[in-house]
Every structure is written in C-alpha cells, then in structure tokens.
Amino acid sequence: MLWKLLVQYLRPQRALLLAVVVFQLAASIASLYLPTLNADIIDQGVARGDTDYILRTGGQMLMITLLQIACTIAAVYFGAKAAMALGRDVRGAIFTRVAEFSEQEVTRFGAPSLITRSTNDVQQVQQLVLMSATLMVTAPMLSIGGVIMAIRQDVQLSWLIAVSVPVLLLAVGLIVSRMVPLFRLMQTRIDTVNRVLREQLTGIRVVRAFVREDIETERFGRANADVTDTALRAGRLMALAFPSVMLVLNVSSVAVIWFGAYRIEDGSMQVGTMIAFLSYLMQILMSVMMATFMAVMIPRAAVSADRIGQVLGTESSVRPPAQPVSLAGSARGELEMRDVGFAYPGAEAPVLSDVTFTARAGQTTAIIGSTGSGKTTLVNLMPRLFDATSGSVRIDGVDVRELHPDLLWGHIGLVPQKPYLFSGTVRSNLLYGKPDATEDELWQALAIAQAEDFVREMEGGLDAPISQGGTNVSGGQRQRIAIARALVKRPELYIFDDSFSSLDTATDARLRQALKQHTAGATLVIIAQRVSSIADADRILVLDDGRIVAQGTHEELLETSETYNEIVNSQLAAEEAV
Predict the structure, then answer these.
(1) Could you give the 3-state DSSP secondary structure of residue 353?
(2) CB atoms near residue 433 (< 10 Å)
(3) Cα-Cα end-to-end distance for the chain
C-alpha cells in the first residue's frame, strides 16, 4: 500500500522529484571525486613537496565542496516541497472520502482514529518522502560509486567491502524485522490515547459531576503508558541499530589501516591511496547506514500507509446513484415511507420493521415513542444518512436512493437531537443554511426560533463569537440557533429530532406557533419526547420497538392507543410529582 500511495500522490510532483535526483547525483559525484583529489595531494603534492600542486588541487576541492553544498541544499528544498505537497494531497483525499462516509463508516472507524490517520499517519508518510529525498536517493549513488572508486584505488583490499557490507545488512535486517510489529502496535495505541482524551474533553462536565477525575486520570495514564512502553521498546531497537553500524564501521576502518599498512610497507600501495580507499569504504558504509535509517522509517510509514489506504479504500454505504433523477415539477417535500426496515450490521434483530406512513405538505407529522424505540434511526433514514435495509424512503414520490445527495439535502432542513454549532459567529453558523441570506432573513429566522432577544443582547449581535460546538451558549440557546439555521434555508421538508427538549414550556409553545406561520405549505416532521410539544400536530405516530403501533391526532390516540396513554400518564405523573 505504501508504494501505491507514493506512486499515486507523487505523480504530480514528478518535476520536483527529477530536480531532487539531478541535484543529488551532482552532489554524489562531487563527494566521490573528493577522496581521489585528497589522495593526489598526499601522494603527489606532499610527497614531492610541490606547494603549487597542493594549493591548486586544494582549490579544486574547495570549489567542488561548495558545489556539493549548493546541490545538497537544492535537493533538500525540492524534496521538502514534494513531501509537503504529498501531505497536502493525501490529507485532502482523506477529508474528501470521510465527508462522503455515512454514519455507519464513521462509527466503524471512530472519530479519534480518523483524526490520527489524517494527521499522524500522513506525517509518517510525508517524513519518509522528505528523508528519501535527502538520504535514500544519495545512498545507492554513494554505495555503488564508492565500490567502483575503491576498486580503482586498490583491488586487493576490496574483499573488506565484500565482508563489511553483508555483515552490516544482516545486523540491521534483524533489528528492523522486530520493529515492524511494534510500529503497527504504536499507531493503534495512539488511536486509543486520542479516543480517551477526546472522550474526557467532550464529557468534562460529566466527569466533574460524578467526581471521576481520579478514575479518568488513571484511565488516560494507562493509555499513555501503553504508548510510552511501545515507543520505548521501538526506541531501544532503533538505538541498537546505530551502535551496530558504528561497530562495523570502526572494525572495517581498523582492518583497512591494518592490511593497508602491510601493503604500504612492501611498496605496493601509497599512503594517499590507502586514505582514499578508507574514505570510500566509509562512504559505502555511511550510505548503508543512511539506508538503515530509511529502513527503520519504512516499516512505520508502511503501517501508516495501510491505515490511510483503509480509509481511502472504503466506499460509503450510501452511494450517489449512477443516473440520478430530478424531482418532477415543484418540490413539495412530501415524505413517504413504504415498509421500511433497518438493521445495523451484525445485529441480531432489526431496529425498524414495516414502517409505513406519509408526511404530507402543509401538515405537521409527529413521532413519539419511548427511549430505544427507533426514533433517531428513523430520522437518519429520512435524509439518507443511512440506507434502509428493506422498503423505500420517498420524497415527492421519488426513492431517495435515486436522487443525488446534494439535491436531496437541498430540500431538507434537519435539526439534529444534539445540535452542533461551528466555531465562528452567530452569522457564520446561520449562513450554513443559506450562504447568500440577507441580514433581514437572519433576524427573521432568529425571531421565529425565539432566539432574537438573546442574540441582540450578545456583544456583537450577529457577529457575536461562537466557540466550537457552541460551548459558550446554553443548551436551549444552542438549540434555537440550530433551528434558526434550518429556517434560514427555507426547505420544503423540516425534520426536528427532539429539537425542543432544552426549551421551557412557554418558549416551546411560542416557537411552535411561529413555526406554523413560517412553514405553511412545507412538510414538518417532529420527533419529540414531550407530549406537549406535539399535541397540536395534524398526525401523531406512536413508535414502539421499531414499529408504528398507532397513529392519529392527540385526541384520537387518547381514546385508542394504550401505548400513547402510558406515555401521557407517565409525563403527567412526573409533572405532578414536581
């Protein structure tokens, strides 16, 4: 997967990579030429006392060194640009793919893991590209060129290369093979740390309310300790790699000097030649060491690439139709469910079974039921956040699976059970509903949602800051801003998923009265826990254990539905107890 990922996302950076290879080749040639010049200075300049030759050759070495530095800097610069471009493109691809996911895929991967894959995992692959541009390109050039140049200096000592390089590769191979499973485990444990930290930050109020700070600190400590333990084990192996390289390096150096001394003594080798041979051997072994460093990085990058590939290779269970159809005539937003059933993957029993009803334009259709009856799942099927496993969901007579998602969502205004506000301002959040909405339209939506008064009191009004998730406003204010966001859009179908739960009874009544006037002609679907929120609905559906067990007006259900009466009586008893 690593190779496939690199080929796909480095293809647009071919010019930069070509520049890296050219500059690294020039730097390698310069590096290989310098020991020969150094040998000439010793054997021809120093031995003969020729100062002019020493200065002239030394000047050449200085110029070549400056050229080598310039080429190396250029190679690193272009390599960094290629690596950063790859990171940008891969992160963009992950974000685009995740944005296509349905709730099912997001739940399967988990938000913390998706965040890790788009940050830490991408960084590992990006770092590999950067280091490859500076080390991996140079290593084969220096090693191959070094062998050729060393043999040219002295053939009889070349057996030292044939011994040193395999020994070094064997030692490094044993170490790297043990690091691969550790790096895979480390990425999984980083996911765990992110998940625990995200849960604690999101649920900080619950943690404090139940005085669980010590328990949560201990839980994070265990996750953190697991990451630390894995990192230490991998670090120990990495630390063992470099002493192994240095051991082979130093033993090889001693061997060259030892056997070279005998050849100098019998006159078959000059001092400069031995020093040049030693320099080439060091270059060969250093290039192997650089390749070793890359070999340490490759397993971790490969693990990260596999995790990235899992995201990019996952298709959403909610796919756009190959040939989408359009809604005939003017859209009315009429919602129809025909024998709808839904079961989560691996579940023993379906959440919904044989759900059939029609929510008509100009009417309010309410759905009520006990906790776990399937109300939220039913809501997720309406805008096609999930696909029904049986039956069909239709908008204006057209199956939602035949509509392009953008067209479908353009006709729906959804206020979820847990409204989410984005960091920015009140205005920027409202404009999510309609980017070109005027200020009058924004204030009108806020007035209908019973949010105008508190927004005007906020410093800045429409430009008052909203923190991520809307944590700087109360739950009721957050709900009303979310409702206003849907109202600004003016869709044909409104879906309110228990969106009035944080409102007091008086505000709830005023809001519902204002909604009637504003949404005349549109289809309203309200899911609620409180009977008082839906008592005036044109039609109420009673959901129990995933099935519609009764439907009618409030008065009709009081006379005919035992389940509805149980819900009403339980709420009246709770109010009387208060």
Answers:
(1) strand
(2) 20
(3) 62
Write a three-state SS string for 36-57: HHHHHHHHHHHCCCCHHHHHHH
Q: Which two tokens stand for residue 53?
A: 């030759």
Q: What is the DSSP letter of 500?
A: T
- Express each pLDDT in 508-539 by its tens digit: 888 888 888 888 888 999 988 878 878 888 89
Using DSSP's 3-state secondary structure scheme, residue 539 falls into strand
Q: Which long-range contacts (CB under 8 A, 24 or more apart) does 198-201 make?
A: 198/111, 198/112, 198/115
Burial of 571 (0-12, 13-18, 19+ CB in 10 A): middle
**Cα dist from 555 to 226, 397, 552, whole Å:** 60, 30, 8
Residue 428 amino acid letter: S
pLDDT in tens, 299-344: 778 888 888 999 998 888 778 887 888 776 566 788 999 999 998 8
- The neighbouring-strand residues paired with 395 are 335, 398
Q: How many CB atoms lie within 10 A of CB 49?
A: 8
Contact predicate 86/126, CB 8 Å: yes
- Distance of alpha carbon 312 from alpha carbon 307, whole angstroms: 9
Structure tokens at 99: 């944005």
Whole-angstrom CA distances from 318 to 76, 187, 334, 400 are 43, 29, 21, 11
Residue matched to tokens 């990171």? 87
User: Phi first, then psi: what are they for 82, rounded to 5°?
Assistant: -65, -40
> Rounded to the nearest 10 degrees, how much is the dihedral formed by the CA atoms of 287, 290, 292, 293?
180
- φ/ψ of 390, rounded to 5, equals -155, 155
| DSSP structure string for 277-332 | HHHHHHHHHHHHHHHHHHHHHHHHHHHHHHHHHHHHTPPPSS---SS-B--SSS--
pTM of the model as a whole: 0.72
Which residues is 539 bridged to in the sheet?
Answer: 365
What gap in Å lies between CA 414 and CA 102, rounded to an integer? 16
DSSP assignment of 391-456 equals: EEEEETTEEGGGB-HHHHHHTEEEE-SS----SEEHHHHHTTT-TT--HHHHHHHHHHTT-HHHHH
In terms of DSSP bridges, do strands 539-544 and 364-369 run parallel, antiparallel, or are they unpaired?
Answer: parallel
3-class SS at 47?
A: coil
Q: Which residues contact 308 (CB under 8 A, 6 or more apart)?
A: 1, 5, 90, 94, 117, 121, 122, 125
The CA distances from residue 375 to 370, 380, 390, in Å, are: 9, 9, 17
